[in-house]
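user: can you give me the structure for this one chain? tokens are fine.
assistant: on it. calling the predictor now.
[tool input]
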Amino acid sequence: MNAPLKIKVCGNKEPENLVQVCALHPEFIGFIFYEESKRFVSKPAIGFAATDCKAKRVGVFVNASEGEIREKVDAFNLDFVQLHGDESPEFCESISQIRPVFKAFQIDNNFNFNTLTNYLSVCYMFLFDTASKSYGGSGKKFDWGLLSSYKGSVPFLLSGGIVPTDAASIKELEHPMLAGVDINSQFEIEHGIKDINKLKEFFKQFER
């Protein structure tokens, strides 16, 4: 891999905790705007807590309307929009006129990477997560060997059940489009509250 792997810390909910997360210098911080999530963010105050944070802000939405997305982009000063539901390529293209799009896909042994073809021209980044019955993260890994079937031109973040001790294995992955990782539930004290010590351990293994 030529470029250092990027880290996205998702599911941030509490302002004071977010300040500590930002001090570790992740490339991306994620806020979830899906009401059924235990990490749902409703108050823009958390955005102000990250005023001095250099990380790019990613808003996570599940089958939301364009109007709702526009509202949150403005209220939380989002840099990117992550679409984590059943959004079509056409919807992604429309949202990409507002902010660059991260499109999440749920991966299992039956996933056909050829279905991503129509998303290639309208997405900034893909996120490959473990398939589950709900739209939320499962906290479990999928078979990373499946990534070899992805031949697309859009870079991706690896997600799904990543723990601090996975850093070495992730760095050994040789996929040319692997841009970084998305971490969340395995680095928490409780929903929306990150365990800063676990994050520090993980970041250190990426020589930060």
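assistant: here you go. Strands lie at 6-9, 28-32, 56-61, 80-83, 101-107, 125-130, 156-158, 178-183, 188-190, 193-194. The CA atoms of residues 167 and 206 lie 7 Å apart.
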